[in-house]
């Protein structure tokens, strides 16, 4: 019972971050399931089954708050579903010993990208309002869907920063559209896992616990997306993903590092993570103050 409550809280926390940042539900939940001994394919399948409900609830909430661009949802969601099915059937064919470190490397790479991208650059706003083309969203969806299935998460970490980097869609609509289109990815990915695995290794009580937590958090996150600075959340989530998957890799058969090696590495990660958070907060405040000064000057001139 305690484990189910913990999973529900993880689902709630992961969805709060995912719904307000456009990423991290899958990688956060999958990382926890791997840490308690679930096989990689079963962990990813469990998370994606839960995501069918959480992404539906999140999409509805974002739509009600006006955070969804339906053209973007269609252009990226359909290729994403194709990539997700391919990734699910690929991961289902790998052995646990092979898949776990492979998945950890993938998640670690995503974590490094998220931390670097949001800490260093924040959220670009150039080209805002220009249309997003199929030739950009199609391949992006295909790759993000494949990564999402094989990594247990990745739809948001790949899709959200790429669209934000284009500067063509405002942040809240980027996050809302990515979260809404993820419903297609989760649905098709789950079918792929069930096709490849059956129900082997999937604990449906865990699915329900993650689902309950995620559904509760979905409307709150859709509201918070207007209030919480994505730059700071990006740095925070990136650090969590990096730390957790570095730990998994260092303990894997690939490396099997001793305590004398692991703990100094953890210390360095904590230090870099703390510095990234401090920098993100300071940059966010500096940019906010600059915008306020610009608005004040504009009003004064008027």
From TrEMBL:
For this chain, the family text in UniProt reads:
Belongs to the 4-toluene sulfonate uptake permease (TSUP) (TC 2.A.102) family.
What is the protein's membrane topology class?
Answer: Multi-pass membrane protein
Transmembrane stretches in the record are 72-91, 103-124, 181-198, 204-225, 232-250, 262-281
InterPro entries given in the database record: TM_pro_TauE-like, TSUP/Inactive_protease-like
- Please give the name of this protein: Probable membrane transporter protein
Question: Sorted alphabetically, which PANTHER family does this protein's record hold?
Answer: MEMBRANE TRANSPORTER PROTEIN MJ0441-RELATED (PTHR43701), MEMBRANE TRANSPORTER PROTEIN YTNM-RELATED (PTHR43701:SF12)
| Protein origin, superkingdom | Bacteria
Record bears the keyword Transmembrane: yes
Write the record's keywords in alphabetical order, separated by commas: Cell membrane, Membrane, Transmembrane, Transmembrane helix
Please state where this protein is localized.
Cell membrane; Membrane
């Amino acid at each position: 019972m305690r484990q189910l409550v913990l999973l529900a809280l993880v689902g709630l926390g992961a969805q709060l971050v995912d719904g307000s940042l456009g990423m991290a539900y899958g990688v956060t939940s999958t990382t926890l399931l791997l840490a308690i001994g679930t096989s990689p394919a079963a962990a990813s399948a469990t998370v994606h089954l839960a995501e069918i409900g959480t992404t539906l609830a999140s999409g509805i909430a974002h739509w009600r708050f006006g955070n969804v661009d339906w053209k973007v949802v269609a252009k990226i969601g359909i290729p994403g579903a194709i990539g997700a099915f391919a990734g699910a059937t690929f991961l289902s064919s790998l052995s646990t010993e092979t898949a776990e470190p492979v998945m950890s490397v993938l998640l670690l790479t995503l974590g490094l990208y998220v931390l670097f991208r949001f800490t260093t650059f924040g959220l670009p706003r150039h080209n805002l309002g220009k249309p997003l083309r199929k030739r950009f969203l199609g391949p992006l969806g295909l790759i993000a869907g494949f990564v999402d299935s094989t990594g247990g998460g990745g739809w948001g970490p790949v899709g959200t920063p790429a669209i934000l980097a284009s500067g063509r869609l405002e942040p809240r609509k980027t996050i809302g559209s990515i979260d809404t289109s993820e419903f297609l990815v989760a649905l098709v990915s789950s079918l792929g896992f069930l096709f490849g695995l059956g129900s082997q290794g999937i604990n449906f009580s865990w699915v329900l616990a993650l689902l309950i937590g995620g559904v509760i958090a979905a409307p709150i996150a859709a509201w918070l997306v207007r209030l919480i600075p994505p730059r700071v959340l990006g740095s925070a989530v990136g650090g969590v993903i990096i730390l957790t998957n570095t730990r998994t890799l260092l303990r894997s058969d690939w490396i099997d590092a001793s305590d004398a090696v692991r703990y100094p590495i953890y210390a360095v990660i904590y230090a870099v993570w703390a510095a990234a958070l401090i920098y993100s907060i300071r940059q966010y405040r500096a940019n906010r103050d600059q915008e306020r000064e610009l608005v004040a000057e504009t009003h004064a001139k008027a």
